[in-house]
Amino acid sequence: MKKSVFLGALTVAGLAAGAAAAGTLDDVKARGKLNCGVTTGLVGFAAPDENGRWDGFDVGVCRAVAAAVLGDPDAVEFVPTTGKTRFTALASGEIDLLARNTTWTFSRDVDLKFTFVGVNYYDGQGFMVPKELGVSSAKELDGATVCIQTGTTTELNLADFFRANNISYEPVPIETNAEGQQQYLAGACDTYTTDASGLAATRASFENPADHVVLPEIISKEPLGPLVRHGDDEWGDVVRWTLNALIAAEELGITSANIGELSAAAGDNPEVNRLLGTEGNLGEMLGLDADWAVKAVQAGGNYGELFEKNIGENSPVGLARGLNAQWTDGGLLYSPPFR
Question: Which residue, 20, 224, 245, 283, could crosslink 293 as a Cys pair with Cβ 3.0–4.6 Å?
Fold first, then answer.
């Protein structure tokens, strides 16, 4: 078993090294389209609407990158991936970027040879149960059946939590959130566990959300963010600084509504000028146009706009900013300087 796991990791790593050598930035420009890996469907984060158009918080990152590189937020081919298929899709070059609520971990970075370009959502694993079960704490789930997505960090976290609390459980393996929702609602499991944001999104899609409770325990750290292949540093810089541009724009008061006026001429704030390309040559350093960040923000708004529209407190998902507030508001969100 250990040998097969090791060889599997080497295979993924080898695929990643080969695909990265091609130079993804040049490939995307030549193709005229970004291939972006997303989840198979999670309300608020990535899901097609009734017309088949993908939308959501993670989708917003894909569209911002496409806008920055190609000048068109719609120049994206969205590739649905599961917990099992996502890493092979990225390593093989099927996708250029994975923006699929994926946790940044040591082994994924070092062993699987992926580069996480930042964190776009600070999360943690939780549990959802039917209210009628009468459970108020995850520590009361001794002997419970648990729906869990395979190929995810939640499998290991779940085992650690139950072992640490000397309680038992029976796993009910699932591959997609849609399958998990179906199994959970059908009563195939007592509880569904995944990232707390995913639970909120899943609960929001239920016919009667009030009949289900997300328990108070958060049992892990789950820094979620987009990732690229190791060795593709030029492309990694583009994705990293596009995400940072969305974060910095919110901090600097740059929105989709005022960015046109702000980018028309250099103003009094040097960092705003550098970000918007009216001063300096940051775009040139990335191999992009001077107004790359302007296009990225115009694609769907700054970080705060994307958050509020897709998963914020006034959306069906109803998430508070919490740790994902700007550092100036007591959160963890923080972009390095644009200089």
Answer: 245
Q: Has residue 228 got a pLDDT over 70?
A: yes
**Bridge partners (DSSP) listed for residue 146:** 171, 191
Say which residues have a Cβ less than 8 Å from residue 212's Cβ, sequence separation at least 6. 128, 129, 130, 131, 203, 206
Place of tokens 């769907």: 300
The Cα 173–Cα 204 span in angstroms is: 22
Q: 42, exposed or middle or buried, with CB in 10 Å at 0-12, 13-18, 19+?
A: buried
Residue 255 pLDDT > 90: yes
- pLDDT reading at 13 higher than 90: no
**Which of 324, 50, 83, 311 lies closest to 203, judged by CA?**
311
**pTM listed for this prediction:** 0.89
Residue 335: is its pLDDT beyond 90?
yes
- Note whether 304 and 252 are within 8 A (CB): no
DSSP alpha helix (H) spans, the chain: 2-20, 24-31, 57-70, 86-91, 106-110, 153-164, 177-185, 196-204, 233-251, 259-262, 270-276, 282-286, 292-300, 303-310
Q: Say which range, 10-19, 101-110, 150-159, 232-241, has the weakest mean pLDDT.
A: 10-19
CA gap 148, 160 in Å, rounded: 14
> pLDDT at position 14, please?
53
Q: Decide: 288 and 296 in contact? Cβ < 8 Å.
A: no
pLDDT higher than threshold 80 for residue 18 = no
Give the strand pairing for 54-55 and 169-174.
Answer: unpaired
Q: How far does Cα 65 stand from its chain's mean position?
A: 14
On whether the CB atoms of residues 222 and 105 are closer than 8 A, the answer is no
Query: CA angle, corner 192, sides to 189 and 196, nearest 5?
Result: 175
Q: What is the pLDDT of residue 5?
A: 39
Q: Could you tell me how many residues make up the chain?
A: 339
Contacts of residue 187, Cβ cutoff 8 Å, sequence gap at least 6? none
Average of per-residue pLDDT across 256-268: 92
